[in-house]
Amino acid sequence: MLQFMELIVENHSHPLGIDCGKPRFAWSFAVTATAQRGQFQSAYRIQVSDDPQSLLSNRGNVWDSGIVQSRSQANIEYEGPELVSTHPYYWRVQAWDEVGVISSSEVSWWEMGLLEEKDWRAQWIGVNPDVLAQWSSGEQYSNSKPLPLLRREFALDREVVRARAYVSGLGNFELRMNGAKVGDHVLEPGWTNYGKTCLYAVHDITPHLRAGNNAVGIMLGNGFYNVNEEPGRYMKNALQRDYLPKRVQQDDLKAIIQLAFTYSDGTTEWLGSDESWKVAQGPIVYSCYFGGEDYDARKEKGSWDQAGYEEDGSWTPAAVVSAPGGTLRREMNPPNKVRGVFRPIKWTEPSPGIFVADLGQNFSGWFKLSISGASAGRRIVVTPAELLGEDGRVWQELQQKDAAWNYFVYTTKGEQKESWTPKFTYTGFRYVQIEGAVPWELSLSDQEQPGETGKPVVESLEGQLIYPDAPTIGQFSCSNPMWNSIHQIINWAIISNVKSVFTDCPHREKLGWLEETHLMGPSVMYNYGLANLFRKAVRDMADSQLADGLIPSISPEYAVFEEGFLDSPEWGCAYVLIPWYLYHWEGDAKILEEHYEGMARYAAYLTNRSHNGIVSHGLGDWADVGPNPPHAQNTPIPITATGYYYYVLKIMSEVSILLGKPGEASKYKELAEETNQAFHERFFDQSARQYGSGSQTSNSTPVALGMTDPAHVPDVIDHLCADVVARGYHTTSGDVGHRLLLTALAEGGRSDVIADMLNQTEDPSYGYQIVHGATALTEHWDGPTSGKSQNHFMLGHVEEWFYRHLAGIVRDYNGQTPKGADLVIKPFLAKGIQWTEASHLMPQGAVEIAWKRTDAGGVELMATLPPNLRAVICVPAAEGAEIRENGIPVEQIPDIRIMESEAGYVRYAVGSGTYRFTSSVPIQYPRSGE
């Protein structure tokens, strides 16, 4: 019988505040040791109730799907009566296996959010403009406005059984109640185009309440809603609130909150934000996503977030302010949390009184500083950085070239022990420089002894890693230590650049450059359960789309750039590619339906920009390798621009078929064919059998995107391999071209070339970064050098190759999986690799793969597949090799179906279960350059 592993609603387990009227259900199955092979779900039944007991009685009193004959187990839409805002619902699934045995899941639950605007019984509130002007004129370290605190007290005279807070604060907020932080989310809500969409969170506040008087408080932070310049602090000028015209609204800080108290008698009472709230300036006197944060502990308001607090004259009535304009939506992307801690592995004192801690890892987040022995008013300056300068101090060349730094200031309040963590900004760093305090490890040798008359002592310093609360759904390792290190630095760059947007870097810009979102999409999806963040990215792109159909190169569009930085097809095509990937990876057709019109408008925009089938604008193969500045120096921009235009048309044709739009499908197919013909007429050299300039990206683009005549592919691949080999197995491709290069080589049967590229340690290569001490993937191939970001995930495309080709877990996004199968297992036995292991969580459940070379010269391939998944396993084998499964000749095993072989592999169709294939004579792959 089938055993349930997890039940999810809208890609969440037990979600609070679902605000779509027809939520979608999914479930996965566990692999058990006693399960029979070939298990699958033949039918399911979903039951939904407002009472968990009715489900135990086999009755769904809200909705019962009935028995549905289907193998579907994901994206199944609720079809019952209209759901009610804020109400909890309970559900379970029954599943019938292949022989009709029924399994029942445990009872799970979800809770609805605020479905309509009228459900909000609250108003946006903020600081009265006159009061705000008074704050700014006071004595501060910064000319920027200090961050406000909002508070209100209320009384409860009955037993509360359930309480929720529906809250949004722009740009960021922290919710507090009765003296404590509510929840463990940070930097919420997510970044959006606030004039189109504003996200709200839902928190369970039941444990924070007490009988009688209570207090609720909100701290507000600037985020991207209020970006201000400050002299001497780093600022990405294009993002400054008053620097350029904006298409994303920015304004003074504001919040909206609605509390719901459900009592034991079944009634519900609401408390919303209005002018009865009070506001005062808090101890955060400067905060900017780019320049850092300053905290003056002398300005703390004591027990301001507790009941009975005596408000002084600094507290004034909150003002009801204008709404930001965007629709309030429940934030469904995973919330940011502190997910890890780093402590110093080394302290140094490069100059008297200046101390530097090495945390050992480049990551994004913030720090926690704990000190002792400080008199009131001592300023402790904390400067994070990715690199050290020649003098041993921290080095921020990315910021300090304009004499503007990213740093943090803590002003002590004079208590024996104090600790501080920033709240509304983060950065990427490895090193932390401290001025104004001495680490306890070095304090005994310091001439100025700590204490009342000396420096405060740093009792502890820790770096805190921040990234979304999303599960790790992939694991990879192999016998090559350097390849494992490459895998690690790519993953550090991924998690460092995932917040509520996929950012380019965690320090200099923090912008959602869209080419990374789609080019690195498969690499991210193999490793992390971030489907809802990709869905948010699609919504952000829709909100950014201009009237003429253009998708700007960044989203949300916090800066209005010009030319290619505004409009590049290799970037904007993410609006078509990401929904397509989500359909293939998650089975999500709804996102295609929701965004079809916008996707079509973008395709039409590119068509209007084309001339005789060729698109010639954009950034091209950004960051390519050569003697000139790395801005598409090797490859004509129309190669990549037109290539992705063709790919957009091809996908739109397939999406149109899927959505039942045959006329549109024919239109896009015809236009794609015309574009491909124009591309070849202009760029394909018939005699030389290569494209454009003959660069690696020129030849990779049409092959990888399916434009090249299959008869010509081998010749083009030969040219591609020859170029890579002639350069010592090094790439010349950039941000766009590198994934195309790896795809063309791998799909063209030349992963051996990729393997040799991965073994290089000279610039440009991943190995160069490893041997020079990089702990996260760097922006450019030359690795840990000044002037470059030390934490960029844009060139991490080989991560996809590790899973898809070396391990052989072939997730589909181009319709390549054979009919009747959900997955292809096809490992590449790379030269010099003795073993590879990988796992990946699919909608059906966890897939595990391991292969190794045997002492006898053969290969052993193990695969574990979850119930309801059908796979084609391609066992590497030369012609005539003996292949066994668990020691038995395969042809004698009835539940393994032999399929037609292909070069170097024997293929088998299998169902769920664990398999151990052995091949006596594995394929001998060609040498690089042959």
Automatic annotation (TrEMBL):
Transmembrane segments: none
Domain Alpha-L-rhamnosidase C-terminal: from-to ranges: 823-885
GO biological-process terms attached to the record: carbohydrate metabolic process
Keywords, alphabetical: Hydrolase
InterPro entries noted in UniProt: 6-hairpin_glycosidase_sf, 6hp_glycosidase-like_sf, Alpha_rhamnosid, Bac_rhamnosid6H, Bac_rhamnosid_C, Bac_rhamnosid_N, Ig-like_fold, Rhamnosid_concanavalin
GO molecular function terms attached to this record: alpha-L-rhamnosidase activity
Residue ranges annotated for the Bacterial alpha-L-rhamnosidase N-terminal domain, each copy included: 159-338
Domain Alpha-L-rhamnosidase concanavalin-like: start-end pairs: 351-439
Enzyme Commission number(s) from the entry: 3.2.1.40
Pfam families: Bac_rhamnosid (PF05592), Bac_rhamnosid6H (PF17389), Bac_rhamnosid_C (PF17390), Bac_rhamnosid_N (PF08531), Ig_Rha78A_N (PF25788)
Known catalytic reactions: Hydrolysis of terminal non-reducing alpha-L-rhamnose residues in alpha-L-rhamnosides
Root EC class: hydrolase
Limits of the Alpha-L-rhamnosidase six-hairpin glycosidase domain: 473-806
The name this protein goes by in its record: alpha-L-rhamnosidase
